Amino acid sequence: MDPLLAALKISASGLEAQSTRLRIVSENLANSRSTGDTAGADPYRRKTVSFASELDRALGVNTVQVKKLGTDDSGFATEYDPGNPAADDKGMVKMPNVNVLVEMADMREANRSYDANLQTIRQSRELISGTIDLLRASQ
Q1: Tens digits of per-residue pLDDT, 99-134?
Q2: Where in the sequence is the domain holding 119, given as residue range(s)?
Q3: pTM of the model
Q4: From the centroid of its chain, how far is CA 65?
């Protein structure tokens, strides 16, 4: 097993996983105020991402994969907004269970993980390029 190839494979799986995570966080943020269409209807429900370690048998290394896309089953907050089409007979509207601060923290963490994986790929590429240059110079 080539360690540089293994590093590239691990980092590429990390990039893909964090890219999915960023997409889900973006959906959650975009729908953080999306209520139901009719009175008493449930609003947007926060989506979640679960990861799992998966063995790449060809290289003999563990990579990260998206295990499951799910939903957060926590309850909905309610707001008084009698003019909203989703308001019940008391004027209360169910609001999405999306906490913008939590989503921003998730986005920041996913972005940093993505950057770390990208940096690993860049450094692996530089090492491969340097090795090729050394082999050319020795001939």
Answers
A1: 999 999 999 999 999 999 999 999 999 998 998 999
A2: 3-137
A3: 0.86
A4: 11
